[in-house]
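Problem statement: downstream parser choked on a complex file, so we are re-checking the raw output for the zinc ion run. The parser issue turned out to be on our end (a line-ending mismatch), but while we're here, posting the original submission so the record is complete.
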Amino acid sequence: MIGIVMGTAERSDVAEEKLKSVLEVLDERPIVDSALLELLRWAAGYYHHPIGEVVASALPTALRTGAGTRASEERWRITTAGEQACARDEPSRAPKQRRLLQELRGAPRTPHELRERLGDSWRAAARPLTVRGWIESALAETGDAAEIPSAPQPGPPLNDEQQAAAAAIQSGLGRFGAFVLQGVTGSGKTEVYLRAAQRTLAEGRSALVLVPEIGLTPQLLGRFRERLAAPMAVLHSGLTERERLLAWREAFSGRARVVLGTRSAVFAPVSNLGIIIVDEEHDASYKQHDGGFRYSARDLAVMRARGANVPVVLGSATPAIETLHNLDSGRYTRLTLTRRAMRAAPPRLSLIDLRAHAQSGGLSTPAVQAMTAHLAAGAQVLVFINRRGYAPTLLCTACGWIAPCTECDARLTVHLAARALRCHHCGADAPLPQRCPQCGFAVKAVGQGTERVEETLTSVFPGVPVVRLDRDVIRRPGELEQAMHRIASGEGRIVIGTQMVTKGHDFPNVTLVVVLNADQGLFSSDFRAPERLAQTIVQVAGRSGRGERPGEVLVQTEFPEHPLLNGLLAEGYEGFARTALAERRAAAWPPFSRLAAVRDSAASAEAALAFLTEARALAEDARGVHLLGPVPAAMAKRAGRHHAQLLIESRERGGLHRFLDTWLPRVQSLPSARRVRWALDVDPIELF
Ligand code: ADP
Ligand code: ZN
Ligand code: ZN
């Protein structure tokens, strides 16, 4: 068994016969330094999760199964006795063994080299030679393939605002401070990150840079590589275990001076940490949604910076409401980039009233007219719809049958090109029927997805090349780059896409953005849905317009009088955020209260509710917290299991955690806890 020594003690409460001895110490120096260990302990406490699992999630799996912290490789060499035997032409009747011996006489060899020279059978030949003491193997340290940086490229001279922001961060180096760098896409935030990182490196310290899952693009990596004269380790979820181990070692050894990665990179072993940068800090991918340990990498980044006594920079065009609240209360420092580095005015936002205008295939007449005008002016157009597939519903107009997912409380989405019906929640995949299975009448696809909008656009604008961006057409990282290239080169004139288009990429020649279905986010049981909608609209809008041509953004809606949309229209994200903060204060939602959710799932709806009901009963005398629920999830059945949730709300953090400390162990010991799958989510960001 491989374990992690967390500390030593003279005495233990565990019975002596149950204690195990340490047989071997695998690492010469602790694989987690004391500052990082402190962070992990804090996280275990805060998220009420066992420290063992917390530490495990911070380390590459390979380390927990015996891989060393340093790269080493098996090396075979010949012994003195072997040299002598070889000189006597021994072993005379084993030609393969003799060849191996002769091979090693030249130089020590790795298994890879031996396989190349002698074929796979060399191992069989090595065994008797080892037994006779003629050859031996040892693990030798190899130089990891550290990226050797070339001379850094100089960046553009910073504008006044960038300079002020960079100066504020640079003068904050060496002590804790949280800076919020607020600026729309293209306002030059990355340039500010780069300056701050350069200064940190110049002072001999390292930088940790976190980016959202979808934001880690080759362009971004290329920009960091080009501009920072330092070896870099990159950590993200797409790595193989081996690659993850290599990147982790680069960071651990201190060779990598910049560690750039997605969520779990917040735990990377950065030695001599000097700054933490969190790009697009509002992004939902910073929150771990699955499994037991549901942490927020953004929040942990702030804690880590505090522990390490270094600054943390939270960058976003649309900071999370929580982050804005921290600014209001003076805990964070605001740095603003109002000017777009290479652009003219911010885009003009207007609404299209879907009740007043004819539409076809989801596109209203004013939207089509605007597109025609922008295309005629030689610009590109971006159409955003947050739904992939051809249509969200397959309907029989004769009997009213709607293709359902048998495993979820959801409809199956029509994927026409693949001739399939798919569930976007559980992955169920069935052939697309021609006729209603209930009455035999012809079925009809209702509503729009990216695939159908692409079809509509192709027929409305014949001959105008369309590039589609969604998870059905972009399955591998390289495909995204190819699509981006077709957009950047101007070959694609119309871009249609899902959430995928909202992040990280700049489309300088896009002057018109059309948001097709804003209304989903307006009415939701989740109090955070409007925040996400506003962020999406602002982020998509941020893709457009540069130079002489200001951008235009059209949002199609059936609710043009909705206060959120109007707040956004009149005052932009700031105005929206002010309204949202006031609403949250009035309703005592976070950040004006603290939330935790216990979520469970079971084979039956009754079992899912029964466990949470018993858990709630254990809290009858609880003080300082409110329990809400249990209730079935909005989509109660997913992938064949029934989901439910119990919310715990408290006016202040201390009260919530004191309650959880005493309540959770009792919940854990409920017999019904073993009949469901459940997890605690502290500071949940998605509610249902
Ligand atoms: P953000 O990170 O806010 O999206 P970037 O830093 O990526 O913004 O800047 C957008 C574009 O503008 C990039 O191509 C960048 O090289 C350029 N840029 C940024 N700052 C300046 C500047 N001060 N002068 C000229 N170009 C700049
Ligand atoms: Zn029917
Ligand atoms: Zn399903």
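For whoever reads this later: The first strand starts at residue 72 and ends at 78.
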